[in-house]
Amino acid sequence: MKQLLRVQNFTVSSDGIAAGEDQTLERPFGHHIAPRELMAWAVATAHWPNRTDPGGGRGLDDYFTRDFTHNIGAEIMGRNKFGPQRGPWHDHQWRGWWGDEPPFHTPVFVLTHHTRPSFTLSDTTFHFVGGDPADVLARAREAAQGKDVRLGGGVSTIREFLDADLVDTLHVVVTPVKLGSGLRLWDSPDELMDRFHLEVVPSPSGVTHHLFWRK
Amino acid sequence: MKQLLRVQNFTVSSDGIAAGEDQTLERPFGHHIAPRELMAWAVATAHWPNRTDPGGGRGLDDYFTRDFTHNIGAEIMGRNKFGPQRGPWHDHQWRGWWGDEPPFHTPVFVLTHHTRPSFTLSDTTFHFVGGDPADVLARAREAAQGKDVRLGGGVSTIREFLDADLVDTLHVVVTPVKLGSGLRLWDSPDELMDRFHLEVVPSPSGVTHHLFWRK
Question: So what's the ipTM on this one?
Answer without folding.
Answer: 0.90
